[in-house]
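My current task is to audit a protein record that another person submitted. I have pasted the whole thing underneath without changing anything:
***
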Amino acid sequence: MPKSKRDKKVSLTKTNKKGLVLKQKIIEEIRNSLSKYEHIFLFTVDNMRNTKLKDLRSEWKDSRFFFGKNKVMAVALGRTKSDEIEDQLNLLSKKLKGQCGLLMTNRNVGDVLQWFKTYRAAEYARAGFIATQDVILPQGPLEDFSHTIEPHLRRLGLPTSLERGVITLVKEYQVCKKGVALTPEQASILKLLGNQMAKFKLEIKCHWTKGKGFHKDVDILSDQESDKESDNENDNVLEDEEMEEDET
């Protein structure tokens, strides 16, 4: 019997380590970006969506977002004081936990914090998401749906029937209950209904500035608030002095 051409022995030492190459590329890109940007912000992500991330990148073209394995990003920054690339970067790398990313930018720190604080984008909830409201469909026709989708709605659990070509709920149906995790079927129904229950948002946890080191987000906000209070106090003092001068 002739030997099959597919029967070839491949040495594992000769296989291409694509994973290692990709990790090294991410590390190199992060380290190269350190010389271009003054600030590094570490943020967490709620309800991650790739389409939303693309929108963020287009809106922040003058900056750079990094998403990857936390351990790889930590290696790029330096996990200890002895191997950190810049002073106090190891403090930032130790905060890389959970679903998070890095933003490198030259924008003003206050402007960045304010933008992230107010940014929200509505998105369809997925299975496992905790419902934020009760959604109940009353008995009667579902005129927004085409009759061809009726079998699919029944498979999702909706008690429907076709009456003169119109999909009709034969009884009231509760799609989801507030505070309870969604099932895959419930998430699909909410999407069909156009109910965007989830919110895609980013939250700044801490940041690092070249020459100034590591800062927690709470510390930054408290400093800004104290600065605003002092400015207001100064304005009030000036107004009082002007009033006194006018009286004299």
